C-alpha cells in the first residue's frame, strides 16, 4: 500500500522537531534587548557590589565581627539587586510573547504548546544558569581580590560549603527565573507577573516579621526567599532550613507555579 | 482545503461563532466576508487551533491544524488584530522570520527568499517595531509564505498597504490560487474582494449567510436591473409592464427595468418598432449584494438617516 502524505508520521520525528523548537526559542531569547540588559545588569550588580564590599567593608568591621560574619554570603550581596533583573527576565520570556502579539505566530508555528513551553523554559534555564553561576563566581573572586592580604574574612573555594554557596547562588537565580517564567505563563501579563513575583518574594518575609518570634521561626524558614537564601549561606542561622533542604523548598514553589503554567497553556485559548 | 463542520465558539455569554460549516476548496481565492463582530477573526483563530471550539471541528489539509507536526508547511497565516502585531518589535524582520523558520525546520535561504518576495530585503536588519503599518503587513505576509504551504489564511492583508501594495497582494493571491493552493482571504474592501475572490463565504452574527461562487452570488441578487433609454419611453414602459416587468421612470426618456433581460427588452422594442438609444445591464455590485444580505445582521451600524458628521 503506498504511503500517503497525510499518514501520521513516525514518533522518531519528535526529536528533530524539538531540536528545531529549541533553536527557535534560543534565537528568540538572544534577539531581544531585554535579555542582554537583564543578564548584563545581573553580572554587573553582583561583581560591582562584591568588589565594593571587598574594598570597603574590612575597614569598618571589628575583629569579632569579621570572625563571625558569613563573608561568603556577604560577597554575594549583589544578588539582592540582580535577582530583580533575573526575575524580570524570567517573566518577560513568556509575557513578551503575549504583549507583542507574537504568541499567535508562535503557536501557529508550534501548536504543541507544552513542548513549546518546555523548550522556552530549557533555554531560559541554560542562559540564566550559565550567566548566574559565572556572575556569582566572579563576584566571589572579586570580593576576595579586594580584601586586604591576611584579612579574617578571606576564604577559598576549597573551604567547607564555599563552592556550594557560590554555585548555589547561581542556581538560586536560575530557579527564581523559572518562578517568574511560571507566573508569566499563568498571568500572561508582564506587570501582573512581576508584581506577584516580587510580592511573593518580599511581602511574606515582611509580614512574618510582625508575628511573635516563635511563629517567625516556625513559618519563616518555609517562605520562598528565606528557603532559597539558604543555598548561598555558609554559616546558617539555627532556625533556618539546611542549604539543600531550603533550596529544595524553593524549587518546590517554582515547580508548583511551573506546573500550573503548563496545565493552563494547554487548556486556554491563546 | 479547509473544512469547517458545525463550528461553535462562545466567549462568556456571547456566541461568537454559531454552528458554522463551510468549505474552502483548493485552486481558488475564497473571500471571507461579514460585518464587524460577525466572527471572522474568531473563525480564523479556530482554524489555526489558537482557540478551541466549544463544539464542531475544522480541518486543514484533512487534519486539525494543531495535529500537524510542522504546520507552517501545511498552512501559512496572517492574523491581524488591531493594535497588536504578531511580532516582537525589538527583533529585526529577519530574526523574527528566522525564529519561526527554525521551529519548523525551514532554511535560512527560504527566509531571505520571502524577504525578497515581499520587498523587505533592505529592511531585513531593522527592528520591526519601527515599521509602518504597510511594512508590518508585508512582514506578516512574509511569515505566512515561509512554509510555501498549500493553504493560506489571510486576515485583512491589504490593511495599510499603499495602492501598489494592494495590486501586489491581489496578483500574489491570484497566482497562489492558480498554482492550486487554497486561499482564504478576509477583507472589508468590497471592490478589492470583487477583483480578487472566486468564491465567497459570508457570515453574520457567527452564522453562515451565504457560500457561493462570486458570479452566482452576484447574479442571484434582487438588485439586477436594466437601464433603457428611448425617445418613446412612455410606450416602452407600458409594453414592458404588460409583460410583467417592473418599470421605474427615471427621467423623460430613461427607464429602470427589473424582471426582464436586455435581450428581451431589445427584442420587444424591435417587434413594436420602438427606438432604443441605450440598453445597459446593471449587475448588482458585490457591495450592493453584501449590504442586502447583511443588513439585518450587522451589529454596529449608524442609525438610518443620521448623518455621520456632527450637526452644527
How large, in whole angstroms, is the Cα Rg of chain A? 21 Å
| The CATH topology of the largest domain in chain B | Rossmann fold
N-to-C series of helices and strands of chain A = HHHHHHHHHHHH
CATH superfamily of the largest domain in chain B: P-loop containing nucleotide triphosphate hydrolases
Number of strands of chain A: 0
Question: In total, how many domains does the architecture of chain B comprise?
Answer: 2
List the helices and strands and how they pair.
The complex is a heterodimer of chains A (270) and B (312).
Chain A: H1 14-30, H2 33-56, H3 63-68, H4 71-75, H5 79-100, H6 102-109, H7 113-146, H8 162-187, H9 190-208, H10 213-220, H11 224-229, H12 243-267
Helix pairs in contact in A: 1-7, 2-5, 2-7, 5-6, 5-7, 5-8, 5-9, 7-8, 8-9, 8-12
Chain B: E1 2-11, E2 14-24, E3 28-33, H1 40-47, E4 55-60, E5 75-78, H2 93-103, H3 108-117, H4 133-145, E6 151-155, H5 163-178, E7 182-186, H6 190-196, E8 199-204, E9 207-213, H7 214-219, E10 225-229, H8 233-242, E11 246-251, E12 254-258, H9 262-271, E13 278-282, H10 286-294
Parallel strand pairs in B: 3-7, 3-8, 5-6, 6-7
Antiparallel strand pairs in B: 1-2, 1-4, 8-9, 10-12, 10-13, 11-12
Helix pairs in contact in B: 2-3, 3-4
Amino acid at each position: 500500500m503506498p504511503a500517503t502524505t497525510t499518514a501520521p508520521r513516525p514518533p522518531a520525528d519528535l526529536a528533530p522537531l524539538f531540536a528545531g523548537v529549541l533553536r527557535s526559542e534560543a534565537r528568540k531569547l538572544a534577539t531581544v534587548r531585554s535579555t542582554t540588559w537583564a543578564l548584563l545588569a545581573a553580572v554587573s550588580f553582583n561583581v560591582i557590589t562584591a568588589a565594593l564590599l571587598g574594598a570597603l567593608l574590612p575597614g569598618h568591621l571589628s575583629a569579632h565581627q569579621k570572625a563571625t560574619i558569613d563573608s561568603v554570603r556577604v560577597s554575594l550581596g549583589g544578588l539582592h539587586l540582580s535577582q530583580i533583573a533575573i526575575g524580570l527576565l524570567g517573566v518577560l520570556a513568556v509575557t513578551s510573547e503575549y504583549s507583542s502579539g507574537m504568541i499567535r505566530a508562535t503557536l501557529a508555528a508550534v501548536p504543541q504548546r507544552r513542548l513549546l513551553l518546555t523548550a522556552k523554559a530549557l533555554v531560559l534555564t541554560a542562559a540564566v544558569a550559565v550567566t548566574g553561576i559565572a556572575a556569582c563566581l566572579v563576584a566571589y573572586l572579586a570580593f576576595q581580590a579586594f580584601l586586604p592580604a591576611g584579612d579574617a574574612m578571606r576564604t577559598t573555594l576549597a573551604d567547607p560549603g564555599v563552592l556550594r554557596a557560590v554555585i548555589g547562588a547561581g542556581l538560586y537565580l536560575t530557579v527564581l527565573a523559572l518562578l517568574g517564567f511560571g507566573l508569566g505563563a499563568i498571568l500572561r501579563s508582564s506587570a501582573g507577573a512581576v508584581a506577584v513575583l516580587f510580592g511573593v518574594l518580599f511581602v511574606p518575609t515582611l509580614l512574618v516579621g510582625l508575628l511573635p518570634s516563635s511563629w517567625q521561626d516556625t513559618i519563616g524558614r518555609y517562605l520562598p526567599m528565606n528557603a532559597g537564601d539558604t543555598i548561598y549561606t555558609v554559616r546558617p542561622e539555627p532556625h533556618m532550613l539546611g542549604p539543600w533542604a531550603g533550596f529544595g523548598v524553593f524549587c518546590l514553589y517554582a515547580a508548583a507555579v511551573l506546573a500550573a503554567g503548563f496545565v493552563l497553556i494547554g487548556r486556554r485559548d491563546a | 482545503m479547509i473544512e469547517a463542520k458545525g463550528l461553535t465558539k462562545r466567549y462568556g455569554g456571547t456566541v461568537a461563532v454559531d454552528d458554522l460549516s463551510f468549505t474552502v476548496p483548493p485552486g481558488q481565492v475564497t473571500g471571507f466576508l461579514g460585518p464587524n463582530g460577525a466572527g471572522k477573526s474568531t473563525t480564523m483563530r479556530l482554524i489555526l487551533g489558537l482557540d478551541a471550539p466549544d463544539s464542531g471541528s475544522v480541518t486543514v489539509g484533512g487534519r486539525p491544524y494543531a495535529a500537524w507536526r510542522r504546520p507552517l508547511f501545511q498552512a501559512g497565516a496572517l492574523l491581524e488584530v488591531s493594535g497588536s502585531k504578531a511580532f516582537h518589535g525589538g527583533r529585526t524582520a529577519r530574526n523574527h522570520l528566522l525564529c519561526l523558520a527554525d521551529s519548523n525546520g525551514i532554511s535560512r535561504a527560504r527566509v531571505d527568499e520571502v524577504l525578497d518576495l515581499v520587498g523587505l530585503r533592505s529592511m531585513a536588519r531593522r527592528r520591526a517595531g519601527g515599521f509602518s503599518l504597510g511594512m508590518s503587513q508585508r512582514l506578516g505576509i512574509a511569515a505566512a509564505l515561509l512554509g510555501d504551504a498549500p493553504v493560506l489564511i489571510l486576515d485583512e492583508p491589504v490593511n495599510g498597504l499603499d495602492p501598489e501594495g494592494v495590486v501586489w497582494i491581489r496578483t500574489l493571491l491570484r497566482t497562489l490560487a492558480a498554482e492550486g493552493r487554497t486561499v482564504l482571504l478576509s477583507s472589508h474592501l468590497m471592490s478589492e474582494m470583487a477583483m480578487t475572490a472566486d468564491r465567497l463565504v459570508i457570515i453574520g452574527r457567527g452564522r453562515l449567510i451565504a457560500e457561493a461562487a462570486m458570479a452566482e452570488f452576484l447574479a442571484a441578487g434582487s438588485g439586477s436591473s436594466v437601464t433603457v433609454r428611448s425617445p418613446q419611453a412612455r410606450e416602452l414602459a407600458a409594453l414592458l409592464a404588460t409583460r410583467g416587468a417592473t418599470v421605474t421612470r427615471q427621467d423623460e426618456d430613461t427607464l429602470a427595468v427589473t424582471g426582464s433581460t436586455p435581450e428581451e427588452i431589445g427584442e420587444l422594442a424591435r417587434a413594436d418598432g420602438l427606438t432604443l438609444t441605450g440598453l445597459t445591464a446593471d449587475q448588482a455590485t458585490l457591495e450592493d449584494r453584501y449590504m442586502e444580505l447583511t443588513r439585518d445582521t450587522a451589529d454596529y451600524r449608524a442609525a438610518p438617516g443620521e448623518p455621520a458628521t456632527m450637526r452644527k
